[in-house]
């Protein structure tokens, strides 16, 4: 099968609660539904958006949490990753921003698009210790280091 090449510039949102846990989504590639994984919230920047604006929009679209783009701290990490998803060969430039949310943050999949609703199955708040000890697949691989950096930062959160 010939893969369709795609280049994406993305903002990844790392919502962190009062206990220092990060919210992740659980889902799968439609070409490999038997290989689920955990991943960060986020997506491609749209025309005219800053990366922080894209992170705020994606946070609302994917989990229903509203946040002002100005309240995102970071970046806490940047990378270029390559992966396949469905019929696409994706090269993704990604930038990770943190946003502090209260323990009362309500997660909703109501604003997801159809494909997201079909391939995202769950959400979970993860602590550093849980991420370190899990045998489940979690992306990005350096998420623990980013979460430690976020949790040790006393500034940058609204």
Automatic annotation (TrEMBL):
Q: Care to name a GO molecular-function term for this sequence?
A: hydrolase activity
User: Which PROSITE patterns has this protein been placed in?
Assistant: NUDIX, NUDIX_BOX
Provide the cofactor list for this protein. Mg(2+)
CDD domains in alphabetical order: NUDIX_Hydrolase
Keyword terms of this UniProt record: Hydrolase, Magnesium
InterPro entries named among the record's database cross-references: Nudix_hydrolase (IPR020476), NUDIX_hydrolase-like_dom_sf (IPR015797), NUDIX_hydrolase_CS (IPR020084), NUDIX_hydrolase_dom (IPR000086)
Pfam families, sorted: NUDIX
- Organism's domain of life? Bacteria
Q: Which family does it belong to?
A: Belongs to the Nudix hydrolase family.
This protein's name? NUDIX domain-containing protein
């Amino acid at each position: 099968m010939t893969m369709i090449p795609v280049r994406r510039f993305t903002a990844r949102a790392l919502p962190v609660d009062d206990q220092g846990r990060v919210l992740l989504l659980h889902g799968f590639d439609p070409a490999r539904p038997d290989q689920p994984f955990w991943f960060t919230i986020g997506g491609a920047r749209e025309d005219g958006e800053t990366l922080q604006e894209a992170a705020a929009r994606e946070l609302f679209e994917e989990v229903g949490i509203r946040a002002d783009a100005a309240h995102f701290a970071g970046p806490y990490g940047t990378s270029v990753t390559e992966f396949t998803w469905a019929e696409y060969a994706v090269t993704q430039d990604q930038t990770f921003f943190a946003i502090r949310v209260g323990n009362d943050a309500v997660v909703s999949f109501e604003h997801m698009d159809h494909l997201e609703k079909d391939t995202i199955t769950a959400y979970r708040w993860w602590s550093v210790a849980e991420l370190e000890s899990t045998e489940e697949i979690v992306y990005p691989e350096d998420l623990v280091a980013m979460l430690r950096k976020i949790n040790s930062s006393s500034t940058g959160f609204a």
